[in-house]
User: Which sequence fits this backbone?
């Protein structure tokens, strides 16, 4: 079968890159399956996309926000209608299992509905004035042109996290999909196009970080950069934006931990830990990569974990029995393998896994065995660095204080969880855990889109995605003072 070719979306038209070059998008569960060829774009494509976004800005900003919301509602309806097909494409290009790709599309549906509703709110404040006959309020203004650089692990959900709040607030956007998952973004853009977005309001340019990402970040017409992805790329974006005095929002790594106390329901904790560690093949920034277990139950809980980890079924995510899909590409697989070697050299005990998986039906994919390390010390690299794969480290702890100290001894601060039946311990943990998200008696993954998402410390740069907090990124506050006294009143001077 001929391989399909997909174009960029600029100024309401599907167009080829000026480079004339394309790249392949392969199925990570079976690299003989090619999903299509995508544009290997360059700076001039970005330039055209940014110009289209600049030209569309004024009319889009002037369209009343509830009208902009109607477009998002229609996009939500189309996502519901096409959910299965979108999830199947995503499974083929990214590898996570169908139930999870259906969940990814659902997260985008939730997001566009949430922000469509925000079109009738976009709340500001009113404040009393110091002076008579004067009215004070704040309104949210769009930032302008948003450059969105998105990851492959949530190929539709995370683009929707950026597009929906940016668009409802009246911004126009240039989005770069991850090179591993451009099809899902093409699919999402098509949905938004059909829902009625005017030309130029949303533009998509596919290609590499250096070919497309850097030109987006550096373009003087881009007013704000929103990025989700690796810490290294985030650091690079950070210095480029700082030099240009351009606002930017970063969502990066995690080294998320679940604490299992001696009073926990161990069966419940087991399900949460397995889901957190091996769901999405460990490729979530919220994945659980450390489980910190009270010394009284660590032996028992490790045995329970080992048994279930060994039994996980790997395979093509489209098959209903599959529990764990492949890693997204060969580079990720080599990275995960390298960390397993490091763990062994550091003296951690490899309990299961640690290598490529080449079982039946998995020979042509980037599969990796679900891996469990015991007797891990908090100072080891496998306990400190983000691996982004199906590797879980078990660390014993003495008590709650010790557990909290281990969790917080990390340069990241995205998600944390504690399993305990003691309400006092739970609330103490909520207070003490230095992360942007904390779960009680639930895993580290599964955040909901009407609450802020993001982390402390090296996970980000202080911004939050989704929820009403997203507007702190995608809008600028304007303070408005309306003086209806008919005379010159001077604040701080004429007070009596
Ligand atoms: C991510 O891992 O990059 O909370 C996003 C969760 C999902 C989103 C995760 N709702 O796990």
Assistant:
């Amino acid at each position: 079968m001929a391989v399909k070719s997909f174009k960029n979306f600029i100024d309401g038209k599907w167009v080829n890159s000026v480079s004339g070059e394309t790249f392949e998008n392969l199925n990570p569960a079976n690299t003989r399956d090619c999903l299509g060829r995508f544009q290997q774009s360059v700076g001039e494509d970005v330039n055209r996309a940014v110009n289209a976004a600049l030209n569309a800005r004024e009319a889009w900003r002037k369209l009343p926000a509830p009208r902009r919301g109607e477009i998002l509602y229609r996009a939500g309806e189309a996502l519901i209608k096409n959910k299965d097909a979108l999830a199947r494409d995503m499974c083929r290009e990214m590898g996570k299992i169908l139930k999870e790709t259906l969940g990814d599309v659902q997260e985008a549906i939730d997001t566009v509905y949430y922000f469509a509703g925000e079109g009738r709110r976009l709340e500001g404040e009113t404040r009393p004035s110091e002076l008579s006959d004067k009215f004070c309020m704040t309104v949210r203004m769009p930032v302008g042109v948003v450059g969105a650089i998105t990851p492959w692990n949530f190929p539709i959900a995370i683009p929707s996290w950026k597009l929906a709040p940016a668009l409802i607030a009246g911004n126009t956007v240039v989005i770069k999909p991850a090179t591993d998952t451009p099809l899902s973004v093409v699919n999402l853009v098509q949905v938004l196009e059909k829902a009625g977005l005017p030309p130029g309001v949303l533009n998509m340019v596919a290609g590499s970080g250096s070919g497309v990402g850097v030109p987006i970040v550096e373009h003087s017409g881009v007013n704000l950069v929103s990025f989700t992805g690796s810490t290294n790329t985030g650091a690079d974006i950070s210095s480029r934006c700082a030099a240009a005095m351009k606002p930017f929002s970063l969502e990066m790594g995690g080294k998320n931990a679940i604490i299992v106390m001696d009073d926990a329901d161990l069966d419940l904790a087991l399900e949460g830990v397995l889901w957190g560690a091996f769901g999405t093949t460990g490729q979530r920034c919220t994945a659980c990569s450390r489980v910190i277990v009270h010394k009284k139950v660590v032996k028992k809980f490790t045995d329970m974990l080992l048994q279930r980890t060994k039994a996980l079924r790997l395979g093509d995510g489209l098959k209903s029995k599959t529990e764990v899909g492949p890693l997204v590409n060969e580079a990720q697989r080599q990275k995960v393998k390298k960390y397993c070697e490091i763990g062994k050299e550091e003296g951690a005990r490899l309990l299961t896994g640690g290598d490529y998986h080449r079982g039946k039906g998995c020979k042509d994919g980037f599969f990796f065995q679900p891996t469990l390390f015991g007797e891990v010390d908090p100072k080891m690299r496998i306990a400190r660095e983000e691996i982004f794969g199906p590797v879980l480290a078990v660390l014993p702890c003495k008590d709650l204080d010790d557990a909290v100290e281990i969790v917080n001894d990390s340069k990241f601060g995205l998600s944390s969880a504690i399993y305990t039946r003691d309400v006092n311990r739970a609330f103490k943990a909520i207070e003490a855990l230095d992360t942007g998200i904390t779960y009680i008696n639930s895993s580290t993954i599964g955040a909901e889109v009407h609450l802020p998402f993001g982390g402390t410390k090296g996970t980000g740069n202080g911004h939050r995605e989704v929820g009403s907090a997203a507007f702190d990124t995608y809008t600028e506050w304007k303070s408005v003072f309306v003086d209806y006294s008919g005379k010159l009143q001077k604040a701080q001077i004429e007070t009596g």
